[in-house]
Amino acid sequence: MKTFRTNSPQRGFTLIELMIAMLIGVFLMAGVIQIFISAKQAYRLQENLSRLQENGRFSMDFLTKGIRMAGYMGCSSSAKSTTVMVDPTKISVASLSLKAISGLDNVANNWSAKACGTNECVAGTDVINFMTSGSCGGKLVGNMSSDNANIQIDANNTCDVEKDEVVIISDCSSSDVFGASSASSGDGKQTIAHANNINIANKLSKAYAEDAEIFSPKLMSYFIRSGTGGVPALWSFDSTDAGSTPQELIEGIENMQVLYGVDTDVTRDYVPNYYVDASKVPATITGTTDEGWTRVVSVRINLLAVTIDNNLTDSPQSYFYNGTTTAPPQIPVLKTDTSQYCQGYTGTLPSTCRLANDLRIHRVFSSTIAVRNRLP
Asked: Phi/psi zone of residue 58: left (φ > 0), alpha (ψ -120 to 50 degrees), beta?
């Protein structure tokens, strides 16, 4: 017969003890999960703020560099020492050759078919254009024998001069803007002609020497357009190149407003008398024959940058931009991704989108930049 000892020690846990242990474990796990979620949200917030700062800074760097170089035509960048030889009826870009800076105010979403694609530009934003050029290795390989002689430059250059393109030749005393009637290479040099079939005359202002250099001008436009990720971005476009396509530069730039500092004194003192948007730059300066855009000596840029991700704050955060305090509206987002704009959104909400609160963070970046080539 098997006997049991009544005073044997108890083994295992009771049901009540197990339930208490499980409850304590649940509380501990909930605390760990909460700490993890808080840490992850803090990481998302810091990462987005860092990207926001970088996007704003890089966008301003792009614009600042371009504005400072506006009107550059070699070491002689003054319009007074520049001769325009291009026939504007033969080369359409000729009228832009000396307009160092210009802009558009409060554009529509389709202000340019090439720049905006299928109405993808952000309506109500501004566009800034500036003509610039840079060294491309187009040094003359010899003195011109006369002012109507062909120009010969080292073939090892990146100027990419082609027939019917606008070209600048410059030294430190004068510049000429002309159309290349032909451009051919051979024997380690490139020969560029400036015949009167696309120019007012075939003679330049002088016969340039070996200290001169060839430049290819570019009319660059900077504007706001929906980015490839669905978020508004800063874009650029080269209007002087027929084969050029818009380039997305920096994502997360929601708005750009531009003011132009105009020197309206009859005798230039190169100090802006007021700042106005592009639509209010005067056609001519009172008391002079100067076009208003030629008197723009500085530019004030205001960018509105936004975080790429949504749901970073508990409630929509108002922001002060362009003189107005704005409460973020609801935004269209993809049903499968609540952190992004719905791609292709142009006002009518597609069936693949829904509206959600804008819980992103906005920051304003402002800078006033001098147009260096307009200063004495």
From this structure: alpha
Distance CA 300, CA 106 (A): 16
The beta-strand segments (E) located in 208-308 are 213-215, 218-226, 232-238, 247-251, 253-262, 274-276, 296-306
Terminal C-alpha separation, the chain: 119
Q: What is the mean pLDDT of residues 130-156?
A: 88
The CA R_g of the chain, rounded to the nearest whole Å, is: 31
Name the 3-class secondary structure at 45: helix
Query: What are the tens digits of pLDDT across the range 330-363?
Result: 777 777 655 556 655 556 676 777 777 888 889 9
CB contact at 8 A, 147 and 167: no
Tokens 């990462």 belong to 47
Residue type present at position 34:
Q
Cβ neighbours for 246, distance < 8 A, ≥ 6 positions apart: 114, 115, 117, 225, 235, 236, 237
Confidence at residue 242, expressed as pLDDT on a 0 to 100 scale: 65
Domain ranges (residues) in the chain: 75-97+134-216
Distance from chain centroid for Cα 170: 28
CA proximity to 327, closest of 340, 310, 339, 315 = 315
Mapped onto helix, strand or coil, the DSSP state of residue 21 is: helix
Contact (CB, 8 A) for 95 and 88: yes
Which tokens sit at 186? 């051979």
